[in-house]
Amino acid sequence: MGKRKKAALLAVAAVFAAWMLWPRSLAKAFDAEQGLAASVTVSGVRDGKSWMDTSEQYDLEEGCARLREVLEEYSYHLCLDTLTGENAIDGKGGTDNSIHLYNVSAQSLISNGTARIFVDGRVYRVGYLGSRRGTALNRDILSALRGE
Length: 148
What we know:
Order of helices and strands: HEHEEHEHEEEEH
């Protein structure tokens, strides 16, 4: 392979990597200023039996300004699951809270405290190394919804 072909291949690879890893605004992907519905599912294992609680529900006609502020602090980027069309996020290593947000424009955002989130039917990644950023996102969304 000639030097020009190698250089061209490296340039294409660099552009592709930059496109994949470029941070995109979570606030632009999900409009929290519109009316929205949210549910929090808490699950775990107690005394050897699994349990799930879905009683925490929110119905906000005016949207949630604090949630909008939280989403402005976070970004997401493409990952291999985005490109392959994966339609599920793994809960391993996440929090015991799974948050489902929906607005009146039929946009959705699902977060379970892992490094991956689900936005409008596609899997993306929050943060670059580990799930710390996803855990922080879950914590901050819950605080905004609960008014803490």
